[in-house]
């Protein structure tokens, strides 16, 4: 057996070990569907999918969504079935000609461009990017701050390393001063009390432990001016646990929160949570308890119920 076959075989064994119920439901669905498929319509296929695979009562809006995807040829019947299973990213690209991460990125762009408050002095936790201005401005933050301080790990400590030289300082065309600090977000001692109007943590708090997060929140409270904002978005464990079931959605993640868990953490340390949003709302996955990759691919917006989002956003004030 060559190396490629060994890898495939090990993946099959892993699936059999961790997701035997999935395979049993697939077999059960196909047997029952083949026995009952007097009506060959896509509508009936989706109804059977809910009844015999998801084992959930269907809602008309759900049936209409998936039937439309089949009728328009955007997904095959096999692809629709596989959209509810744990599959590698290469299969996702093959079945759907795109990946859910692209849609989620679009939703996060909308978040940054519409939800974050204006601020003159910003601290961006984990905000280094490919552009010298950092990820916050690259993603379309619409305001023009006087200064952004970006905290991120040295390249040698990052999961994905690159040969891009470290930037110390940059000035944008609009005059915003960008300063880089290559330190851990868990140590903000370099910044004085009441320095910032806004602290932004974009998909970063999940990369540290709960104890470290407590220290970060306490330090953020210290460095914010009175009335300053602490805003963050992070994966929603209520949805990610449906996606992976074992571990977290990224090997670097130390803990993934539910919206109520993180909101309580902020409140316990003196913050007032004033706004919550879903980033890439996935109500069908939430209701069925089964992660739908096809739903994520179409989840490019924001919602008002944070528990429904693939990620969620919290805005809090000191």
UniProtKB/TrEMBL annotation:
What are the record keywords, sorted?
Answer: Methyltransferase, Transferase
Instruction: Decide whether keyword Transmembrane helix is in the record.
Output: no
Residues in Methyltransferase type domain copies: 167-231
Record-linked CDD domains: AdoMet_MTases (cd02440)
**Which molecular-function annotations from GO does this UniProt entry contain?**
S-adenosylmethionine-dependent methyltransferase activity
Its protein name is Methyltransferase domain-containing protein
Record organism:
Leptolyngbya boryana CZ1
GO process terms (BP): methylation
Q: For the DUF4214 domain, which residue ranges apply?
A: 38-85
């Amino acid at each position: 057996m060559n190396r490629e076959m060994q890898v495939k075989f090990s993946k099959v064994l892993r699936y059999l070990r961790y997701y035997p119920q999935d395979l049993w439901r697939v077999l059960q669905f196909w047997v029952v569907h083949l026995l009952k498929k007097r009506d060959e319509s896509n509508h009936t296929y989706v109804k059977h999918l809910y009844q015999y695979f998801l084992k959930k009562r269907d809602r008309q809006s759900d049936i209409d969504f998936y039937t439309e995807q089949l009728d328009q040829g955007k997904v095959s019947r096999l692809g629709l079935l596989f959209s509810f299973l744990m599959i590698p990213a290469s299969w996702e690209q093959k079945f759907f000609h795109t990946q859910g991460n692209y849609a989620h990125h679009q939703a996060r762009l909308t978040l940054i461009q519409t939800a974050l408050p204006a601020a003159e002095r910003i601290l961006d936790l984990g905000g280094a990017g490919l552009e010298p201005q950092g990820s916050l401005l690259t993603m379309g933050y619409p305001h023009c701050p006087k200064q952004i301080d970006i905290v991120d790990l040295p390249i040698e400590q990052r999961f994905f390393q690159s040969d891009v030289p470290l930037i110390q300082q940059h000035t944008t065309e609009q005059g915003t001063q960008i300063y880089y600090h290559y330190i851990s977000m868990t140590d903000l001692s370099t910044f004085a009390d009441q320095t910032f109007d806004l602290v932004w943590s974009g998909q970063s708090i999940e990369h540290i432990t709960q104890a470290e997060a407590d220290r970060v929140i306490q330090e953020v409270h210290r460095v914010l001016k009175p009335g300053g904002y602490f805003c963050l978005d992070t994966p929603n464990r209520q949805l990610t646990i449906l996606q992976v079931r074992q571990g977290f959605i990224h090997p670097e993640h130390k803990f993934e929160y539910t919206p109520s868990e993180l909101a309580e953490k902020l409140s316990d340390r003196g913050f007032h949570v004033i706004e919550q949003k879903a980033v890439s709302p996935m109500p069908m996955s939430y209701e069925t308890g089964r992660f739908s990759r096809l739903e994520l691919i179409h989840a490019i917006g924001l919602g008002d119920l944070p528990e429904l989002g693939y990620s969620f956003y919290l805005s809090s004030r000191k």
